[in-house]
Amino acid sequence: MKWILQVSLLLSLVSFLPAQKNWQKIFDAYSNKIVTINYYEQILSFEEIEDKERVKRHLTGIIVDDRGLILTSSAIYPAKIEFSASFNMMASAKIPTEIKVKFKNGIELPAKFIGKDDDLGIAFIQLTDSLQTVGVQFSKTNKLNIGQEIFLLTHLPESYDFNQIIVKRRINSIAGGNEPRYYFEKNFSSLTNFGLAIDASGRAVGYFYGGDRPVVNRLPFSGISSGGLAQIVLFNRFAEQVKQPPVFKHKQTVRKKWLGIYMQPFTRDLARYFGQPDLQGILINTVIKNSPAESAGLLPGDVITKINEQPLVAEKDSDLETLRQIIRNQKADTVVLEIFRTQHFVLKKVNLRGSPISQFMAEEVANPELDFSVKELTRDVILNRNLPPDTKGVWVSRVERAGWADIAGLQIGDLLLAINDVKIQSIEDIKKIFKQIEESKPKFVKLFVQHSGNTRFIFIKTNYQTRRGDE
What we know:
- This protein is of the alpha+beta class.
- It is 17% helix and 36% strand.
- The protein has 8 helices and 30 strands.
- A 7-stranded antiparallel beta sheet has the order 10-9-13-14-15-12-11. Strands 24, 25, 26, 27, 28, 29 and 30 form a 7-stranded antiparallel beta sheet that branches. A 6-stranded antiparallel barrel has the order 1-2-3-8-7-6.
- Strand 19 (303-307) and strand 20 (310-311) form a beta hairpin.
- The model is unreliable at 13-17, 45-52, 80-92, 212-226 and 467-471 (pLDDT under 50).
C-alpha cells in the first residue's frame, strides 16, 4: 500500500512539472508586452462649467506594434449620460490626460489617447517618446471550442502593487453565428476586466473583456466570484483596428454604417402567426425617421431574410448582433436586403450612411457669463428621453452652482427651446444668441425650456452692470 502511495505521489509530481513549466513559459513570453496605464480622468461636475476635479485611474494595456501603439479597454474614455436616474449621472466627456505607460522593468513613459471602438470595448493609446517596442504577435486562430483551456494575463489591483497575474480558464459558452462570442467565468480579481488571452500552446489569440465596470474583489486568487462572464475577442475581430486605429476627432470622426431600424427575433411562434412556419429572419418593428431604412422603403412588419445573399436567422435577442455587425462593418455604401412582406419576397437596395453622432461626440457650447453649457440634441439623447424622433434643439449639459442660471432654476437635462423668444433648433442658433447677449448685456435673459415633459419660462437676472471688470 505504501509502495502504491509513493508511486502515485511520484506520478503526480511528474505530471505537475510540465504544467508548471508551461505556465512559466507563457508568462515569460508575454509579461514584457503587458503594461500598466496610469492616467487622469476629468470628472464633470453637475454644477460647474469648468472642470475642477480629476481622478487618477489605472488600466492594463497590451503592446501591439513596434511603434508604441497600445491596446486597452474603452473604459479609458467613458462618455455616457443617464437621464433615468434620480439625478443626472455624467461620466467623463473629456479625453484622458497625463497618460503614463509603465513597463515591467519599471520604466514609465508618456502617451496620448488615439481613439476607441465601443462596439469591441477597446481603445488605443500611443507612446509619445520615440521608443521602439516589441508588440504581441497574435495568432490568426478563428475558432475556440467549449472546454478549451485559455491563459489570461493581466494585472492585480493597486493594493497588490499592480503585479501581473496569469490564470487559466476554460471556454464555458459560445454564442452567435458568423462571428461567435466566447465566454468564460471570470471569478478572479484583477485591475480591470481586460487583458491578453493566450491558448494552451502559447499563442496569443486575442484579448478578454468584461465590460467597463471594474472588479471590486480584494483577494488576488481564483475561487472568489466577481460575478458574471467575460468575453474573449479573437484577433480577426480587431486586426483592422490594430492596423489602422480609430482616431478621435470632434465632428470629423468616421462613423460606422447605420441602417436605422429597431428589430426583434423572428421566432417560430411569430413564423406560425404569419402563416410561414419555415420562414426565418429578423422582424422590423420600427423604422427610424430620416434613416437609410426609411429612404429605402422598409416598413414595420417586414422580415429581413437575407443581406447580400447571406441568410439571417434570429430566434433570440443575441442573434440580432449578426445583422448589426454586418451593417456596422460594411465597407460598401449599399447593401441588398431580401424582405418578406405580405406573402411575397422583395429585394430592397439600401444606401447606408454613417451612424448618427452620439452625445459624447456632440459639440458643447458654454456661456461663462450665464453660467451654463448646452449640447446639440443627438439621437441617443432623444431615445433616452423618449422624445419624438424629429425633435430638434439643444439640451443643458452643465449648470454652475450658485451661478445666474442655477439661481433662476435651470437644470441639467432641460431642453432649451427658445432664448428671448428666438427658437433654438441647432447649436449654431445658440452660438448666435450667446454672441448677441454678450454684446447687448441685457438685465434679463428669458429662457423657454422643457423639463420632464412640461414647459416653463425661466428668467435669468444677469447683473452685468454690477460685475467688476477684473473678475
